[in-house]
Amino acid sequence: KRIVILISGSGSNMVNIAEQCANQRIAGLVVAVIANKAGAAGIKKAEALGIDTAVLSHRDFESRESYDQALAALVEEYQPDVVVLAGFMRILTADFVQQFQGRLLNIHPSLLPKYKGLNTHARALENGDTEHGVSVHFVTEELDGGPVVLQAKVPIFPGDTEEELQQRVHEQEYRIYPLVVHWLCTDRLRLTAQGAELDGQLL
Ligand code: GRF
């Protein structure tokens, strides 16, 4: 299956997914990595892995709609079966989401439905939570609100810093995102009107 990954930053999840494709733990091939920022560090990492890259800067567009239309056209050029958001820090329009519905996954660093949006680690610490985690979900029109496919929990220890917590969550991201991408690549996972379905079972 053909995978396109969208990034804005360091792209460590992108690299991890590309590596898992290479060692056949994911039944897919990363055919392109696209960033919305010219300076995204992940672009160089993708190039080093021999993956096609593209930068489509949102600054060159006047509206969210026009950017997302251009982005959708660019993504379609690669004819993806799966589109993976991996630290892609933009809210996508309803049209974009609908165009790729059922093929579009995101990873969000919280135990959804808790802490949608930004600064999840800081918010978990501020609230004195004793556990935190990460969620992989189908993308729908509601921000960080699509059906959750898989979550991993991590403990929060007294005195944890935001960086320590982020690091602990990242380790779990590298475990769970490849699994879900593999499930989608092997047609075990589907988005239905009722929600996410794995092997015919509603999650
Ligand atoms: C991850 O924490 C992910 O959960 C969030 O953005 C971060 C991306 O990190 N959506 P990286 O670019 O994959 O290193």
From TrEMBL:
Please list the residues that bind (6R)-10-formyltetrahydrofolate: 64, 89-92, 106
Q: According to UniProt, where does the site described as Raises pKa of active site His lie?
A: 144
Gene3D superfamilies reported in the protein's UniProt record:
Formyl transferase, N-terminal domain (3.40.50.170)
**PROSITE patterns per the UniProt record, alphabetical:** GART
A GO MF annotation of the entry reads: phosphoribosylglycinamide formyltransferase activity
One GO term describing the cellular component: cytosol
E.C. designation(s): 2.1.2.2
Catalytic activity entry: N(1)-(5-phospho-beta-D-ribosyl)glycinamide + (6R)-10-formyltetrahydrofolate = N(2)-formyl-N(1)-(5-phospho-beta-D-ribosyl)glycinamide + (6S)-5,6,7,8-tetrahydrofolate + H(+)
The record lists N(1)-(5-phospho-beta-D-ribosyl)glycinamide as bound by 11-13
**Does the keyword field hold Transmembrane helix?**
no
UniProt keywords (A-Z) are: Purine biosynthesis, Transferase
Q: Where is the Formyl transferase N-terminal domain?
A: 1-181
Report which superkingdom the organism of origin falls in. Bacteria
Q: Where is the active site?
A: 108 (proton donor)
Give the pathway annotation: Purine metabolism; IMP biosynthesis via de novo pathway; N(2)-formyl-N(1)-(5-phospho-D-ribosyl)glycinamide from N(1)-(5-phospho-D-ribosyl)glycinamide (10-formyl THF route): step 1/1
Which stretches are annotated as coiled coil?
none
Entry function = Catalyzes the transfer of a formyl group from 10-formyltetrahydrofolate to 5-phospho-ribosyl-glycinamide (GAR), producing 5-phospho-ribosyl-N-formylglycinamide (FGAR) and tetrahydrofolate.
The UniProt family comment states: Belongs to the GART family.
What is the protein's given name?
Phosphoribosylglycinamide formyltransferase
Q: From which source organism is this entry?
A: Aliidiomarina taiwanensis
